[in-house]
Amino acid sequence: MNPGHDPVDVAVVGGGLVGSATVAAILSNPLSRGLSVALIEPNPPSLQNLPPMSLRTSTITPSSKDFLQDISVWPIVPVSRIASFQDMVVWDCPLKSPGNLFADTNSHPTGALAGALHFDSRMNNASELGYVVDNDTLRFAIYSRIQELQQNCQSDLKILPSAIRDIDFGDRNADIDAHHEQDDMCSTKWPVIHMDNGQSVAARLLIACDGARSRVRTLCGFDWFQSSYSQSAVVATVKLNEPICTAYQRFLSTGPLAVLPMASGGESDVAEPLANIVWTTTPTEARALNAADDSVFINELNLALAENEEENLPRGFPKSRRRPSGPTVGDRGPFVRCAKRFPLTTLVTKVPIGTRA
Predict the structure, then answer these.
(1) pLDDT-flagged residues of the chain (< 50)
(2) How far apart are CA 207 and CA 195, in angstroms?
(3) Among 220, 245, 273, residue at a domain's last position
(4) CA distance 132 to 173
(5) Does 210 map to a domain?
(6) What is the per-residue pLDDT for 140?
(7) Do 133 and 48 contact (CB within 8 A), yes or no?
(8) Spatial distance between the Cα atoms of 40 and 193, rounded to a whole number of angstroms
(9) Domain carrying residue 278
């Protein structure tokens, strides 16, 4: 290694949710908190103020919550930004069985009829099946924990706000002397990471957390492949006519449509019932949904969620008192649906400004 390369035990490239949580975990664990760590992230978040809630959300399982609790991140997440759900309904189109969808039957131990799955937290003696938190809030909480560790002098951490330019692996074919591997931090065998800002850092361990278009993966020459599903996702925050504590996912012919409860964030005195929508569909329909005005988008969304008969909706699914007469594109143009049409409902009543992408 050439002089001037700052050596660390661990270098983490990419400071999104995975990379930052990895750093927080390393520095929070008594067995690893003594390691020197470099977090290389070109856009670390500002910690001056809590950021606005974002469209992108993460569904946190109880196990993931326990992990975040163990590294002292979960207590930092504002309670007003955490939505929980006790069960999850997954179904396709359309359910034809009349009566209670989750009637307890001997032939279906879970209580769900053919064409639907019902996951209940009580099956695991748990109070919650999962939690929904927007990504910017969660990332803010993780970096706040990292800052707390730095301020308490409990860590040897460098946050390097830059993208990586190159990685020098030295002599990959050289024999590694076990004795020198332990004692010589300046061995030429450790990778040296060169950044766009001119800095360089050498690390015993390099962890790549830089996403789907990983620069580290490319520079390391790892073999990988990808295949196209010919699908795109539309995400939105929508207002409901009543709150939900169930996560819903419907599989349409064009892809799955998820409805997740979402916290209001406490920005107003009266909490509005909100949901996060993740709608996977064809690229053509996704473009049309993003371009459509709110009334068309709302009706298309309600149309995609509704059943043939309202009495066959999953238990707990808000039912409409009337069918809205708003505009809809339906089977015409870019909007693709299953073979059968579904009546509109008033589940979704509003798309807040700036909450669709």
Answers:
(1) 1-3, 95-112, 173-183, 269, 307-346, 353
(2) 15
(3) 220
(4) 47
(5) yes
(6) 97
(7) no
(8) 10
(9) 87-127+229-350
* Residues 251 and 341 reside in one and the same domain: yes
In a domain, 77, yes or no: no
Domain containing residue 47: CATH number:
3.50.50.60
Q: Are 262 and 277 in contact (CB under 8 A)?
A: no
* Predicted local distance difference test score (pLDDT) of residue 280: 93
- d(CA 100, CA 315) in angstroms, rounded, equals 7
pLDDT, tens digit, for every residue of 224-275?
A: 888 888 889 999 888 887 888 889 888 888 889 999 999 987 655 456 788 8
The number of domains in the chain is 2
Tell me the CATH number at 312: 3.30.9.10
Indicate the pairing of strand 6-13 with strand 36-40: parallel
Q: Which of 189, 220, 251 is the last residue of a domain?
A: 220
314-344 confidence digits (pLDDT tens): 444 444 323 333 334 333 333 433 323 322 2
Note the Cα 99 to chain centre separation in Å.
35
Which DSSP string do the residues of 18-73 spell out, in sequence order?
A: HHHHHHHHHHHSTTTTTSEEEEE-SSPPP-SSPPPPPS-EEEEPHHHHHHHHHTT-
